[in-house]
Every structure is written in C-alpha cells, then in structure tokens.
Amino acid sequence: MHIKDSKKDQATIVMIEGRLDSSNSGMLEKKITALLEAGETNFLFDFTAMDYISSAGLRVLLMAAKKSKANGGRVVLSALTENVKEVFDIAGFSSIFPIFATPGEALGSF
Amino acid sequence: MEFRLKNDLAEIQLLAEAVEVFGEENGLPPKVVFQVNLALEELLTNTINYGYPQGGENELTVKLELKNGKDLIVEIRDDAFPFNPLEIEPPDTGQDIEARSIGGLGIHLVRQMMDEIEYCWENDHNVLVMRKHIKLA
Fold first, then answer.
1. Whole-angstrom distance, CA of residue B15 vs CA of residue B33
2. Per-residue pLDDT tens digits for B4-19
3. Is A64 helix (H, G, I), strand (E, B) or coil?
4. What was the pLDDT predicted at B100?
5. Does A17 touch chain B (CB under 8 A)?
6. Are B6 and B14 in contact (CB under 8 A)?
7. Packing angle between helix B105-113 and helix B30-50, nearest 10 degrees?
8. Which portions of chain B are predicted below pLDDT 70?
9. What is the model's pLDDT at position A86?
10. What does the pLDDT look like over A24-36, one tens digit per residue?
C-alpha cells in the first residue's frame, strides 16, 4: 500500500494505492492522526487506485470521520472500485460516508 | 491448495497472492477471489491478534479446494485459543457515524460473502470451513 496526501483549499486529499489491510492499516491511522493533530478537518479519501479494503481499513476511516466531525469537518470518499463498494455496502458504510464518482466531484462538495 | 503461514499479519498478503494464483488456475471469477481473500484476512487477523496470548511462533493452515467445478471449500485450521467466531454478535449497520462501532464488522463481512460457514474444535484445533458456490459465466 502507498499513501499520498496533498492539501487543497477545501480539504486534504488522501490517496491510497493498492491493498489496505490489517498489516498496514496502522500506517494510515498514524498518518490521519498526525493530520488531525496538525489541524486538518476536511478529508477526501480517493480510492481510484485502491483495490482492496477489509474491516481494519474501515476502522481507520470510521475513526477519521468521528474525529473530523467532532472538529467541525467531514470525510468524503471518491472513486470506489466495484469490490470495495461491495464491502462498504455490506458494512453499512455507504450510508454514513458521502461517496462521489470522481475526486473532482468530491472536492466540489466542500 | 494448502498454504501454511506463521502468526504474523504480514503473511496474509502472501496467502492472498497464492489464492489469486489458485483462482487463475481454476478459472474462478475475480470477485470470488476478492471475497475469499477478505474472509481469510478477517478470520486470520482475529486469530493472529487474539488467539495466541502466550506469544511465540505458531503455524496456521489454509486449504482451498474446488469441488465439481462449482463448490469452493476454504478451511482454516489453527491451534490458537479455542474460539468460535460465529458466536460474535452481528453489528448494527444502520447507526450513524457517532454511534457506529467496528466490533463484529469483520465476521459480518465474512458471513455475507460466504454461503456456508461451520466451526468445530477438533483434536485441539480450531477448524473453520467455509463454502462458496461458484456461478460460472
């Protein structure tokens, strides 16, 4: 898995490439915690290049959403691949995260 | 196919690669390969994180078998602490962000993605057998 983050006016974009699983979700958790502590409140997770997620990854996203919301911000997602979307649907996460087809549309929502 | 892994989360990715090769060799739909790998990760992560309170290096065995070209059997066998994941309470997936917790979500995903799951304690081992019916195009 690779994580890239970049700052736009509206939000911090976090792009995840590859496989987000129990062996590497801790890396993402550290990254997000550091960004939250640096004062970031709005996040866009771009999943264009993420082909796998399990409950370990969902746990980190839920943590990010809870803390962002407590700080007056929010977390949105873009470009879920078909298999990833199914995981979100089964977990009931598709109804708690705003999901957009493209990163551009997601940024436009802030 | 039989795959042995140590109680180290990093080994699950090696298993996932072996399952992908098995899927290609047997013509399994990519979606099924994804679902099997997800189920394996959820169950093995639980066992590796919580099943060996005594520590040390332990070995878990995963077997995959395709029967009659349409029934995929996935078996996990380990000598971890006796634990039946099917006894975990299902999560409430309708709650909003503040109320949602992550407990039980892993096994919920497994139940939804596999067609049958059986657990037994056999010869001092946890044995979990999952079945997935393959619909070939």
1. 12
2. 999 999 999 999 999 9
3. helix
4. 87
5. no
6. no
7. 150
8. 136-137
9. 97
10. 999 999 999 999 9
For residue A9, the model assigns a pLDDT of 87
Q: What is the ipTM of this complex?
A: 0.94
Domains and CATH numbers, chain A: 2-108 (3.30.750.24)
Ranges of beta strands (E only) in chain B are: 2-6, 59-67, 71-78, 116-122, 125-133
A19 contacts chain B (CB < 8 A)? yes
Cross-strand pairs, B55: none
Nearest CA in chain A to B48: A22
What pLDDT score was predicted for residue B44? Answer: 98
3-state SS class at B120? strand
Tokens in use for A28? Answer: 């993402």
Q: At what angle are helices B30-50 and A55-70 packed, to 10 degrees? A: 80
Between chain A and chain B, the number of residue pairs with CB atoms below 8 A apart is 66
Where are the domains positioned within chain B? 2-133
Q: Which CATH number fits domain B2-133: 3.30.9.10, 3.30.565.10, 1.10.10.10, 3.40.640.10?
A: 3.30.565.10
The CA distance from B17 to B25, in Å, is: 12
A104 part of contact set with chain B, CB < 8 Å: no
